[in-house]
Each structure stands twice: as structure tokens, then as C-alpha cells.
Amino acid sequence: MSDQTPNPNDMNNAIINQWTQDELDHMNLFEAFNFDNHGQRFGLHPIYRLPLLALSGSLVGGVSGMMYGYQLGGLKYLAMNAHRMPTDRNGWFYYHKRKNFVCLKDSFVTGFRQAAKVGLLVGTLFSLEAYFDYARGTIDFANTMMATTISGWIYANAYQLSSYQAKSLVKRGAGVGLLLGLLQDASNYLIGNDVWYLRVFFGINPRLSRKLS
User: What keywords appear on the UniProt entry (predicted)?
Assistant: First the structure.
């Protein structure tokens, strides 16, 4: 870190930017990573956070989709072969061998589809959240609520749900957004970030002082 600290009375934007760049140039990789992520949701800048969340959503959606696809494939195979069930041991052996192949194929197909859908939905949701964080210049639950509400509206229109179903989905999205946003605000407070409404309305300042040295 540089030992020369600019005089606040003489500082302008150019000096601040140059001083900040000089500080960054002297940081090691870990310090620069912490500086870049300071004050962000989950302690991660959107550049890192969004791909991780989308990937996590894809993994969860893929695993659940594979499980569902395997079960559904078994039911379909049973329905297709109910009129010609095996009558001997060899027949049952090949029946189950073929069934396992069909179920695995259906599980992978359904898993990939579900992974793409969930990954896209999660990526869209948290990208909207990050955009509102940037546009409003503050990080709080309101941005999460707006992101989940808009995501619910997009989902309802994409699948052409009825007006009643769309309204219900949007309302549930707002409720989920409120809960998720408050949980994120609590997480931000615990890791030492400033939660503005706690400070303004309740006088609760950040619990940790995270200064780079």
C-alpha cells in the first residue's frame, strides 16, 4: 500500500482515481479481490456472483431434472410394454436392461433441459437484481423484490399462463423476493457491509470494519 495519502482539501476526481489506481497496483491478488468485492452481495462482485449463481441453479435443476426424467421414463416404458410383459427369466433380464437404458436416456435429456431452464431463470433473476443495485446505487431487498416480480411476469408470459395464474405467480414472486432480499441484507450485515435502512432508521452501523491494509 502507498504511504502517500492525498490531502482531502486538494483532491479532485482525477487525483482520487489516480490514487486509487496506485493503491490497486500495489495490492496482491487476494487484496485486490477483497477490494473489488467489498460491499457486494454475498461478498462477491456481480462479475463473479452471477456465473456462480447461474451455474448453481443449473446444477440443482439438472440433478432434479435427471431424477424426474428417470422416474418418468420408467413409467413411460411400463405403459408402452404393459401388453407384452416377459414370461421367463431371460425375458425379464432384457426387459430391465432395456428399461434402464431408456430411463437413463430420458433422465439425461430431461436433466439438460431442466438445467438450461433453471440456469436461465436464476441468471435472469440475479442479473436484474444486479442491474437494479447499479441503477439505484444501493443494495437492499427492494431490488430483489423487483427482480423476482419481473422474472415471474416474464415466466408467466413465456408460458402463456392465464391472467389469474400470472397474478398469483407475480404475487408469489414478490413474496419470495422480499424473503430472499431480507436474508441477503442480513448476510450483508453479518459480513460487515452497510445496510442503509438499518443505519438510517434504527441506528445500526456495520458490525465490522473491513479496511484493506
Answer: Membrane, Transmembrane, Transmembrane helix
DSSP string, 31-57: HHHHHHHTTSGGG--HHHHHHHHHHHH
The torsion angle over the Cα atoms of residues 22, 27, 33 and 37, rounded to 10 degrees, is -50
Q: How far are the Cα atoms of 35, 124, 128, 180 from residue 167, in angstroms, in the given order?
A: 42, 20, 20, 20
Instruction: Give per-residue pLDDT as tens, 32-71.
Output: 556 567 788 988 889 999 999 999 999 999 999 999 999 9
8 Å CB contact between 115 and 58 = yes
Grid coordinates belonging to 118 = 433453471
Single pTM value for the model: 0.75
- Whole-angstrom Cα Rg for the chain: 26
